[in-house]
Amino acid sequence: MGITQVTVAVRNPAKPDTAWEALFLVDTGAVDCLVPGRHLRELGIQPRGKRIYELADGTETTFEVGVAEVEFMGDRVGATVIFGADDAEPILGVTALESVGIEIDPRSQRLKRLPSVRLKRAARQA
Fold this sequence. Notes:
Blueprint: E1 5-12, E2 15-27, E3 33-36, H1 37-42, E4 49-54, E5 60-72, E6 75-84, E7 91-93, H2 94-99, E8 102-104, E9 111-113
Parallel strand pairs: 2-7, 3-6
Antiparallel strand pairs: 1-2, 1-5, 4-5, 5-6, 8-9
C-alpha cells in the first residue's frame, strides 16, 4: 500500500473564519482525525474529554479529544479530533472521509468521490 495525503483545513466551529491548514495522512485504519494539539489550542478548540486509542503496534494510549470542522476536497464536516503531540503527523480518519462520501481507490491510492454518501456498509460477499 502506498501513502495517500490530502490538504485539510481545521477550524473551530465557533470561529470558522480562522483555520490551520496542513497535509494530512489519509488513514482508513484510523477512526478519528489526529491534529497536533498546539494547533487545536491556537484555534481555541478545547478538549472535551479523553479516549483510549489502540495504536498501529497494538499498544493503547489515552488522548484528549475535541470537536472541530475539517475541510478537504471542497467539503466541510464536523469531526472528532485527537489532541496529538505537538510534532505529530496529522491524520485524516475514515469517519471524516465517509461523512462526505470519499474513499481511497485501492489501485491508484487516490481519493475518489462516491456518487452518494453511504448510510450503511455494503453487504459482504461470502
